[in-house]
């Protein structure tokens, strides 16, 4: 006798649950990876924040580090919530399986009890040999033998099914218990991260209030920055203009005329768009490309010609691609500046405290050009720009997404 119909249905249901569980496990692996990345970013931001917090006075750098922490912790909470959703779904599925197995086990035991009771009643005063040899034909004897064999097999099958269901039930209960422990750990983690997030938001509000009380000072700093940006713009614009004049050989053009070698370098640089390394190994984008509202001053826009990357003290700054050092300069408000040429592309590294290269030097990707400068507020921030000829480009579209 084959497995009972309810048992077959249950096995099919469990198989479907297992297929869904494999899919959920893949999603969980992705979420776990995302969680690890966020935790790494949090540690990085905490290190940067601790350096800015050493100075008693609140600063924009400190505010940006806090904002980064809030952003990453919110992302971490989102990952934990999504993982909790998957775990809750798995617990629900396992609960259904456990209940179904328990019901099936009860039914199988009832069926087996009825079978044993039926056999007992039938066997009273019943002799198997008499039953067999009282057959009137050989064919009837064969059929009676077959019946006894099937009946014996049915009882054995029922016992095996009971044992199998009991084993499956035990395993599913263990799995359910483990999932519930995992669920509890995630809930604890979520509560902890929510507390951290609330503390950060409170700190953010405190820093914003302190900075708002220094409006005049912030406006003076903003004007100094605009002046420094203007000088930096002029530096690279003049550099590109001279290169165009040098390579054009008297022709009217607004683009650098490339040789076979520089065209190859330029094409290779362009081919690595979105894949180029960061100019510093640690840090986060603290100022994005283009125009944005000032983080504290109301109704004031700040324009960024590149991106700012807030990083750790004494962090090494590296060339993001092969190229030649086009110039090394000092710009007030931007400190030391290195510009590297990659065909008709340029990368600019400003706010350096020290420079390890000289004009005309050939560089390889990831070769050190200097170290980042740390200001009086304890903020270590690199200004990084990408140009093609005399056109400013968004650096975020060139470096890989971290």
N- to C-terminal distance:
61 Å
Output the structural class.
alpha+beta
Mean pLDDT: 83
Parts with pLDDT < 50 across at least 5 consecutive residues:
none
Whole-number count of domains: 2
Percent of sequence in beta strands: 15-25%
Q: If helices are DSSP runs of H or I spanning 4 or more residues, what is the number of helices?
A: 6
> How many DSSP E strands?
12
- As a percent range, the share of helical residues equals 55-70%
Shape: elongated
Most strands sheet: 10 strands, antiparallel
Helix-strand topology string: HHHHHHEEEEEEEEEEEE
- Global Rg: 37 Å
Structure, described:
With 402 residues, the protein is α+β, with helices and mostly antiparallel strands. Helix content is 60%, strand content 17%. The chain is built from 6 helices and 12 strands. It has helices spanning 5-53, 60-123, 128-133, 138-212, 215-248, 260-271; strands at 284-287, 290-293, 301-304, 307-311, 316-318, 323-331, 335-342, 345-355, 362-363, 368-372, 380-388, 391-393. Strands 1, 4, 5, 6, 7, 8, 9, 10, 11 and 12 form a 10-stranded antiparallel β-sheet that branches. Strands 2-3 form a two-stranded antiparallel ribbon. Helix 1 runs antiparallel to helix 2 (60-123) and helix 2 packs antiparallel against helix 4. It is elongated and about 120 Å long. The protein starts with a helix and ends in a 9-residue tail after the last strand. The model has no long low-confidence stretch (mean pLDDT 83).
């Amino acid at each position: 006798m084959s497995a009972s119909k309810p048992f077959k249905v249950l096995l099919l249901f469990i198989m479907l649950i297992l297929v869904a569980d494999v899919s959920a496990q893949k999603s969980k692996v992705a979420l776990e990876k995302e969680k690890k990345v966020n935790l790494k970013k949090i540690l990085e931001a905490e290190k940067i924040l601790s350096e800015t917090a050493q100075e008693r006075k609140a600063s924009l750098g400190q505010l940006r580090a806090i904002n980064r922490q809030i952003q990453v912790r919110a992302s971490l909470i989102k990952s934990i919530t999504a993982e909790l959703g998957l775990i809750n779904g798995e617990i629900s599925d396992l609960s259904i399986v456990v209940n179904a197995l328990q019901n099936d086990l009860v039914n199988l035991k009832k069926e087996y009890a009825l079978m044993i009771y039926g056999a007992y009643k039938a066997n009273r005063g019943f002799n198997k040999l008499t039953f067999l040899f009282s057959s009137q034909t050989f064919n009837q004897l064969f059929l009676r033998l077959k019946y006894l064999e099937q009946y014996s097999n049915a009882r054995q099958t029922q016992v095996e099914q009971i044992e199998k269901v009991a084993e499956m039930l035990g395993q599913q209960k263990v799995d359910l218990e483990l999932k519930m422990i995992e669920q509890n750990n995630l809930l604890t983690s979520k509560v902890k991260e929510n507390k951290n997030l609330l503390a950060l938001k409170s700190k953010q509000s405190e820093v914003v209030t302190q900075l708002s009380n220094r409006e005049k000072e912030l406006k003076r700093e903003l004007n100094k920055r605009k002046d420094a940006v203007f000088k930096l713009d002029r530096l690279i614009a003049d550099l590109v203009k001279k290169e165009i004049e040098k390579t054009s050989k008297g022709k009217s053009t607004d683009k650098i005329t490339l040789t076979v070698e520089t065209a190859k370098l330029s094409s290779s640089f362009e081919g690595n768009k979105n894949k180029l390394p960061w100019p510093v190994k640690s840090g986060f984008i603290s100022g994005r490309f283009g125009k944005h509202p000032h983080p504290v001053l109301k109704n004031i826009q700040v324009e960024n010609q590149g991106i700012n990357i807030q990083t750790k003290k004494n962090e090494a700054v590296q060339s993001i691609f092969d190229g030649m050092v086009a110039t090394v300069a000092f710009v007030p408000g931007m400190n030391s500046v290195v510009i590297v040429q990659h065909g008709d592309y340029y990368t600019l590294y400003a706010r350096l405290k020290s420079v390890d290269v000289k004009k005309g030097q050939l560089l390889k990707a990831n070769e050190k050009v200097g170290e980042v400068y740390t200001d009086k507020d304890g903020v270590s921030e690199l200004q990084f720009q990408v140009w093609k000829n005399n056109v400013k480009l968004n650096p975020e579209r060139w470096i890989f997404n971290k």
